[in-house]
Amino acid sequence: MIYQKIDGIEFKMGKKFDFSFLKKYGKVFKVFDDQDSGNICFGIDNQGGRIFVKFAGAQTSEYDGDISKAIERLKSTVPVYDSIKHASLIKYIDSEEIGQGFAMIFKWHDGECMGRMYEESHRNIMSLPLGEKILIFQSIIDFLIDTAKMGYVAIDFYDGSIMYNRFNKTTIICDIDFFRKSPSSNDMGQMWGSARFMSPEEYKLGEILDEITNVFTIGQMGFSLFTDSERDEKRWPLSASSYHVLMKTISPDRSNRYISLAEFCKCWKEAIR
Q: Which of 68, 104, 115, 156 is close enough to 178 for a disulfide, judged by CB 3.0 to 4.6 Å?
């Protein structure tokens, strides 16, 4: 691992790389260098406003795979962001081949990431009032319901995909790179994703991946938000009935889960009244 700088910002890399092409977009004020996907991301001050640039083509510190595959994976996400138009989703602007790799450009959104890899942001979100957490969770539920209606199944959707702006009380969804059209099937054996959020079928080659899979995902997201992934009922801050609603979502047996996100949402709202 080595360290290098751009516009005075130090970040870590697997190998030194020339990022001078980023000057085209503006001045870097933030670097996100700890993704294991092969991407590295930058917050950039641009004349038209701040932007977020996701780049594949460099050897990052957390990725030891084939760089060409990282580039192809990032390219394959363009149709996802192109087709999913949602008020909660980070706004996709453009993409291009540049700097011996591939870059995607998004509008910058101020907020803190719920993911555990960002320790201070994670702590801040975990310490939010219960009422705010309920609103955040409902925004996530609504997003998954809407994307399911668009025909997508959420793969690799985890706490690192959630940002929250404490000042304007806005939830922002980001990093939906691996969403795919439903119905789909497990073609990897172990799918991309954080183990805390993955259903049993995401570990078994040939298993169906669909909306019932995402019922599991939303259940894990709920435990992540309300108890930092603890499932002990004694630590559950809401009603007993809401705890049992969430436990039903994460049943290892698909047939015991809710049959849709909408059905789960209805039961959840009734349980937290």
A: 156
